[in-house]
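Notes, Module 5: Reading structure tokens.

Key idea: the token line is not a picture. It is a compressed description, and you learn to read it the same way you learned to read a sequence, by spotting repeated patterns. We will look at two proteins. The first is printed below with its tokens.
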Amino acid sequence: MRADRRTATTAGVLFLVTEAAAIGGLALYQPVLDGVPGTLDPGAGTSALLGVLCELVLVAAVIGTGVALFPVLRRRHEQLALGYACFRLLEAAVIAVGTLGVLALVTLRQEAAGAGTVADASGYAGADRALVALHDWAFLLGPNVALGLNTTLLAYAVYRARLVPRFVAVLGLVGGPLICASAVAVMFGAYEQVSVAGSAAAVPVFAWELVLAVRLLAKGFEPARDGA
């Protein structure tokens, strides 16, 4: 019982870290992706590098949630526990790929800014767009598709085992498939990922992680079904 309470606290903290790191990272490096004036200046990549640091914290926290919850989930359903851990690792790996794209973009922008002529700088344009596209696809496949899949698996696992109140699990069962469906819509050009529709589709999964984190920190797993 005491071990599971520590596990719940650890997982709750890690879920909160993922939320804060994801929001902070995107806010810090988004101007570089958008090509905001001034991001080509020498030294202007500092904000983007801080954003990348937030993304690395995010990667560690994402993996951490999978590792922390695995022992508890395995006692109830080993296949679901393994599936959740694997999809959480996949999400972290895809996020890391997008982070490499941002780092490469910062380097490219700074080199372009230091080019001696406009013609020299314009030669970077194609690679610049490719790196932005790499990040955007990684952002779609990681924090949307992979996140939706592992959210659905975790929500189903805790619903079956009654590890948390049913309304918390149901929130994840709604949010996971919804953000996956939204990612497919973005993939086929229905709307932009960063849009009103895209943001609305992300709200339930954001709320799921926040509510789950608060629940785990405040009360842990449901005692009636806590087998440790």
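Here is the second protein, with the sequence above and the tokens below, as before.
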Amino acid sequence: MLLLVLANHWAGAQSLPAAAPLCIGETFTLASKVLGETRHINVYYPPVYRDSATVRLPVLYMPDGGLAEDFLHVAGLVQVLVGNGTMRPFILVGIENTARRRDLTGPTTQEADRKIAPVVGGSAVFRQFIRRELMPAVRQRYRTTAETALVGESLAGLFTVETLLLEPDLFDTYLAFDPSLWWNKGELVKQAAAIVPAYHGPAKTLYLATSSQGDLAGTARLATLLQAPARPEFTCYYEPLPAETHATIYHPAALRGFRLVLKPRPVPAKK
């Protein structure tokens, strides 16, 4: 009887149509001379890009961009927000990690910080990879505009804020959720007190959000610096989300941030 049941089960399985891969985007590899390793890059673009041979779109870059990291749920947000008209269409470029704590942290003098990974403090090199290798590859492969944005949470949020302060020309818009501003005993926020007043370049936008477990004091100090009336070069939004934890903040903060700082722009009235 058991053999008959198994035979019937096998026959039923054999009659099922073959499954096909479920594809939501593209992936490619980039042999990086800057980093000395090959990196995997995941890309999602909205239907407006697929349906046109000429349309050009801005690009939203994200660390933690692997399929087992944050790429899929952020791609889903881009898909639904673009679809319902609350976000402008962006090409999403996810950078899959190889050594996350190396790439997303700056230098530190704190022994406790250095214990989190064999190598830390590689954020400047990682930015050079983005600037010199990844961005040119994306511009070559896809139809892009000059507009760029960067989004990250936790250590990727630290990297996002550090990039705004140290290399602000790299992106136009920055979104950081629960940024790990405690790194190096809060040195980045201390440096911001001198960096922000000295900046007189093109306008930059930053969206900050913190959970109940985030660095509330450091993030609030940074937001206060950037929101000063004497700092018209910066548009800074800060939203504490006390109902969220460090593990839950990314998706709701990205939903709010994308709607706020990547929203559709008003169409100029015809004269």
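Summary for the second protein:
- The chain has one domain: 23-261.
- The radius of gyration is 21 Å.
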